[in-house]
Amino acid sequence: MVSSSVYGFEDTLSQICALLKKHGYNVWNSYIGTIRVNPMLSNMENCLKAVEECDLFLGIIRTQCGTGYIGDKNITFEEMKKAIELKKPYWFLVHRDVTFARQLFKKIESPESVIFKDQRFFDPLCMEMFDYVAKSKEPVEARIGNWAQEFFTFDDITVYLNTQFADKEYIINQYMRKEQNNG
């Protein structure tokens, strides 16, 4: 499953899904319409059900935090939390602007004083998402599964996805290891 990181990212998301399909994966993604939808569930519930049922998860952290909010919860962030909680084999991409902003705000004495009037440009939740998947609150030596690959262009994404997903035997081994550890 590729996370529901849609708004303003449709073309790149379509290219990511096409690249993974080219490598032989059955790609689930809300934008391209390959997630089964139960009309009796909310969008969030349908996306979280897809995370529960998927074998592998690719999360994408951008300055715009995905598909949207239901109440105070962001669908994309909830998908990421669910994938980690369920110990799915997961990979994360993080846009360079998120990592840059995170470093910048670390230098500001009171980042809370920075007001983001237009969250369509930069949603501060993206830094929380990055800190969550990078496990920033854990001691460095205790962090496992905290890799988030920075990208700026689609070429950056292509290099990472080809490296991670072209060797299906490697992926199958990751999935089997996950099954053995949880089984």
Explained architecture:
This protein has 183 residues and is mostly helical. The chain has one domain: 3-Layer(aba) Sandwich (Rossmann fold). The protein has 7 helices and 5 strands, in the order H-H-E-E-E-H-E-H-H-E-H-H. The chain has a 3-stranded parallel β-sheet with strand order 1-4-5, with helices on both faces. The chain has a two-stranded antiparallel sheet with strand order 2-3. The longest helix is centred in the last third of the chain and has 15 residues. It is globular.
Task: Give a quick precis of the structure.
This protein is mainly alpha-helical and 183 residues long. The chain has helices at residues 10-22, 43-53, 75-85, 96-107, 125-134, 154-165, 168-182; strands at residues 57-61, 69-70, 73-74, 90-95, 149-151.
- Strands across the major sheet, in which order? 1-4-5
Which fold name corresponds to the CATH topology?
A: Rossmann fold
What's the shape? globular
Low-pLDDT segments: none
Number of structural domains: 1
What is the CATH architecture term? Answer: 3-Layer(aba) Sandwich
Mean pLDDT: 85
Largest sheet: 3 strands, parallel
Computed Rg: 16 Å
How many E strands?
Answer: 5
* Secondary-structure-derived class: mainly alpha
Alpha-carbon distance between the two ends:
22 Å
